[in-house]
Amino acid sequence: MIAHPGLGHVAVGVSLGEGALVHASAYVDDGAVIGAHTRIWHFCHVNGGAVIGPRCSLGQNVVVMKGVRIGENVRIQNNVSVYEGVELEDEVFCGPSMVFTNVYNPRSAISRKNEYRSTLVKRGASIGANATIVCGHTIGRYAFIGAGAVVNRDVPDYALVAGVPARRIGWMSEAGFRLERLPGADGVARDTERLRCPGTGTVYERRGDSVVRTEEQA
Questions:
Q1: Looking at domain 15-173, what is its CATH homologous superfamily?
Q2: For 35, which DSSP code?
Q3: What is the reported pLDDT for 92?
């Protein structure tokens, strides 16, 4: 593993944080910023201008394009390309071979580099293996995208979505458990309910398509 710029395929102009390590088979180009204690594994390519935060892990064959911003403690599994226009906030999980895009209507014969659509994945969200995120959408905080789903619209905070196209089938806790409806929690209206994380006991409240965590335990 390489710990200093100018060695192997890590360019001299790379900013490599304390304790960050790059596998000898990976390429990191001039102008890339790699945070402290981040690990970049076999056959990765980080382009110049990409910024990767501390304590991240990039699995085998991950590509990070210029202009990409990746937060702290992000996990990107094998065979993922993070294209220009994508931003991953802290503690995002990207499953193996999931797909980002940045052009909505690509044609090989037509350059659309000035038409990139941004994709924002907010803090704590998880994207399952082989899922596809159509560009121009936002994945909410702690949302959970099921394996193989195709996301073609914004996903609310804490939402669990699956299918092609992806549809909401439930809600997920920050700890990664499917939220359960509290008994007798009908609320004053059908679009209001209280939910509980079976793993931690933390209580959440749903109002319409919005879920928030409370300070209660149940």
A1: Hexapeptide repeat proteins (2.160.10.10)
A2: -
A3: 98
